[in-house]
Amino acid sequence: MKNTRYLKYIFLIPAILLAIGAGTNAQSIVTGAINGTVTDASGAVVEGANVTLVSEATQETRTAVTGPGGTFQFSLLKPGRYSVSVEKTGFRKAVQKSEVLLGQTASANAKLEVGEATQTVEITENIPLLQTEDANITSNVDLRTLQNIPNPGGDLSYIAQIAPGVTMNTSNGGGFGNFTAFGLPATANLFTINGNDYNDPFLNLNNSGASNLLLGSNEVQEVAVVSNGYTGQYGRQAGAQVDYTTKSGGNAFHGDAVYYWNGSALNANDFFLNAGGQPRPFENNNQWAASLGGPIKKDKAFFFINTEGLRYTFGSSSQVFVPTQSLQNFILNTSLPANNPAAIPFYQQIFNLYNGAPGVANAQAVPGDSCGSLDTVFAGPCLASYRVSVPNGNREWLLSGRVDYNFSDTDKIFGRVKFDRGSQPTYTDPINPAFNIQSNQPQNEGQLNSVRGW
């Protein structure tokens, strides 16, 4: 019993470990960090230097003072570009640009030169090819890459395929999801958007809309694909973790408008349609996006809205079997009058559907066709076959918005909502479009995040 008094200290261990992790990593799955060391011309560390960090997007400012080791750190930073200036009496002011990437710690070391404080030295450093702050295998995709990488349909999960160890899944591979990482199943991957889980709730795979694509690339600021995460903010899933951060407004108004088109004129005919002598089907694909962001109140509140849509008509190629004209004549003129004459109008309607089907003029009798039980009363082929492509379409449209509010330089909040509406062609009938099946798939989502430390 006397040992039980020590049990209470056991529960402090996880808290201590979390505190150590937060202090060393200084970033989360929605933020990054900047650290550095200030030295003089001889390489000796400079204690007591004033370090100022300024966001280029919002002009928000944070300050720090270097410690005994000449080091400084700014944690929980929103991804983006920053200006880091270092000042110390008796030295020239040093200024350099630094880019914060999602989930990573950027280095901004500064070497001060002796001189007047009114003089400024701009430091230009190349981004290191090797990231040495931690052992994570992380691939960061910035806004420029997102906008220019070839990505038909704009599916956001496609971005992960540029990361090392990631392999695309195909329908012939027997796997689920869009990709696997280092051979682990797609159900082991984790997707987040602004830190919130974004997996499909039923299969634990990549999320998607009515188009089977994850639209929203025009809203995303940066993507981090962590193929192998060692630091404390990762570890829930054994596969890759794909973290998305969305854009927010700044002190200046910014917007864009994007439109893509693809159609039959740009595509070759289907192999099987060519073999069957069928023409190239009609296809027409339209995709667009537009966004606008800016200030609600300068330095205090910002907004960002985005809309995206996809409308496409495609040809669904299939092999069709219809009753031959001789079988129709036998049923209407011989079988039904003898057995059930009242059913003749009903069968006439059925046969009219078959006879009016697209491409039925190319139907050819099936060789070696057996009519089963009709063989004893009907001599001749029962079925004719042909290949045809008939059009069907998909529609998806979304609207999203985000509002950021700064209570102070270290206490911020933002909210985001998204409304997605779409209609998916679940089944395309080659005989008559009246039998097509459409699936309406609405999705609504929202999140409210509080950020302390930036």
Extract low-pLDDT stretches: 1-26
Mean pLDDT: 83
Shape type: elongated
> What is the CATH architecture annotation of the largest domain?
Beta Complex
Report the count of strand segments.
24
The major sheet is characterized as: 8 strands, antiparallel
Percent of residues in beta strands: 35-45%
Tell me the count of domains: 2
How far apart the termini lie comes to 46 Å
Assembly context of the chains: single chain
Structural class: mainly beta
The amount of helix comes to 10-25%
**Would you identify the CATH H-level superfamily of the largest domain?**
TonB-dependent receptor, plug domain
Please explain how this structure is put together:
By secondary structure, this protein is mainly beta. It has two domains: 2-123, Immunoglobulin-like; 137-316 and 391-452, TonB-dependent receptor, plug domain (Ferric Hydroxamate Uptake Protein, Chain A, domain 1). It has six helices and 24 strands. The chain has helices at residues 7-10, 12-25, 143-148, 271-275, 325-339, 344-355; strands spanning 32-39, 50-55, 61-65, 71-77, 80-87, 93-100, 105-107, 110-111, 120-123, 137-141, 166-168, 179-181, 190-193, 196-197, 220-228, 241-246, 254-263, 284-297, 301-323, 364-365, 383-408, 411-427, 437-440, 443-452. The strands form five sheets. Strands 17, 18, 19, 20, 21, 22, 23 and 24 form an eight-stranded antiparallel β-sheet that branches. Strands 3-2-5-6-9 form a five-stranded mixed β-sheet, with no helix packed on it. Strand 2 (50-55) and strand 3 form a beta hairpin. Helix 5 runs antiparallel to helix 6. The chain is elongated and about 110 Å long. It starts with 6 loop residues before the first helix and ends with a strand. Residues 1-26 have low confidence and may be disordered.
